[in-house]
Amino acid sequence: MYKKLLLLLFLMFIFPFPAQAHTTLLSSTPIEGQNVTEVLTEVELVFVTKIEEGSTMSIEGEVDSFEFDDIEIKNNVMTGNFSETLPNGSYRILWNIIGEDGHPIEGNIAFGMSIEVEEKEASITSSVVDGTASATEKKLAEVQTEKHNNIPVTILLVLAAVLMGYSIYKLLVKKK
């Protein structure tokens, strides 16, 4: 009986349960640390799993806070639109979501605004450059997702599995 209980506990740690899989931020527009040089009218957050209605986000500046005109949630994507133009400065997107498993999760994304007044010719040149920059930003977003991996939890689960396996091994060897 004791062996079966230990084996059951061991198997519980080896195979992940959906309830243990809290959602994390996969990518964002703007990305963490980005210096935005164009007028920002939309913020998009993409999460690993589906998020529930009731999830919210806002933008907090050095002086003021800005609310979104509307926030749309579709599966694992939350999009916020606003009509105000953010002045140059530092900002944080504050988000609070309800994950698919029902757990509330919150976080923030820091970014900066630095919009320059440009002449028409400079505007055309910057739009060409921005096309290249958006591809680069996508690559940076992919790298950012690696940062959000939950490495400490994985290490603890592996250590628990090894400890349970060792315990079962010792019990089986001791009984023979």
TrEMBL record:
<dbReference type="GO" id="GO:0005886">
    <property type="term" value="C:plasma membrane"/>
</dbReference>
<dbReference type="GO" id="GO:0006825">
    <property type="term" value="P:copper ion transport"/>
</dbReference>
<dbReference type="InterPro" id="IPR014755">
    <property type="entry name" value="Cu-Rt/internalin_Ig-like"/>
</dbReference>
<dbReference type="GO" id="GO:0030313">
    <property type="term" value="C:cell envelope"/>
</dbReference>
<dbReference type="GO" id="GO:0005507">
    <property type="term" value="F:copper ion binding"/>
</dbReference>
<keyword id="KW-0812">Transmembrane</keyword>
<feature type="domain" description="CopC">
    <location>
        <begin position="22"/>
        <end position="112"/>
    </location>
</feature>
<dbReference type="InterPro" id="IPR032694">
    <property type="entry name" value="CopC/D"/>
</dbReference>
<dbReference type="Pfam" id="PF04234">
    <property type="entry name" value="CopC"/>
</dbReference>
<dbReference type="InterPro" id="IPR014756">
    <property type="entry name" value="Ig_E-set"/>
</dbReference>
<keyword id="KW-1133">Transmembrane helix</keyword>
<keyword id="KW-0732">Signal</keyword>
<keyword id="KW-0186">Copper</keyword>
<dbReference type="GO" id="GO:0042597">
    <property type="term" value="C:periplasmic space"/>
</dbReference>
<keyword id="KW-0479">Metal-binding</keyword>
<keyword id="KW-0472">Membrane</keyword>
<protein>
    <submittedName>
        <fullName>Copper resistance protein CopC</fullName>
    </submittedName>
</protein>
<feature type="transmembrane region" description="Helical">
    <location>
        <begin position="151"/>
        <end position="172"/>
    </location>
</feature>
<dbReference type="GO" id="GO:0046688">
    <property type="term" value="P:response to copper ion"/>
</dbReference>
<dbReference type="InterPro" id="IPR007348">
    <property type="entry name" value="CopC_dom"/>
</dbReference>
<feature type="signal peptide">
    <location>
        <begin position="1"/>
        <end position="21"/>
    </location>
</feature>
